[in-house]
Design goal:
four-stranded antiparallel beta sheet
């Protein structure tokens, strides 16, 4: 059974940091690229960051999070991470982990991040 389980969300104050985790099971994790997406209330889901299957090469970041967020992965633990610092109220959203390899795509259920001003 394929599972992507996000964790680490919560309520923080503006300027604080938070690290999200995405634990994978049921598929060959190190064959899949990983992306983090987020969806704020009333807005469309947007891509936040992406990392290749082996974690080498250039990671992808949305302009709005460059310099504040860092995506990483540990293929020995089948887990991906999103380190978020300098959080802003506009970062408030449900954050989703996505695994993709060609047409094979898996989504997690999301974890809520709320940043108070």
């Amino acid at each position: 059974q394929v599972q992507l389980v996000e964790s680490g969300g919560g309520l923080v104050q503006s300027g604080e940091a938070l690290t999200l985790s995405c634990a994978a099971s049921g598929f060959t994790f190190n064959h899949y690229a990983i992306q983090w997406h987020r969806q704020a209330p009333g807005k469309e889901r947007e891509l936040v960051a992406g990392i290749s299957s082996n974690g080498n090469g250039n990671n992808l970041y949305a302009d709005s999070v460059k310099g504040r967020f860092t995506i990483s992965r540990d293929n020995t633990k089948n887990t991906a991470f999103l380190q978020m610092s300098g959080l802003k109220p506009e970062d408030t959203a449900v954050y989703y982990c996505k695994a993709l390899m060609g047409r094979s795509v898996y989504w997690g259920q999301g974890t809520q991040v709320i940043v108070s001003a």
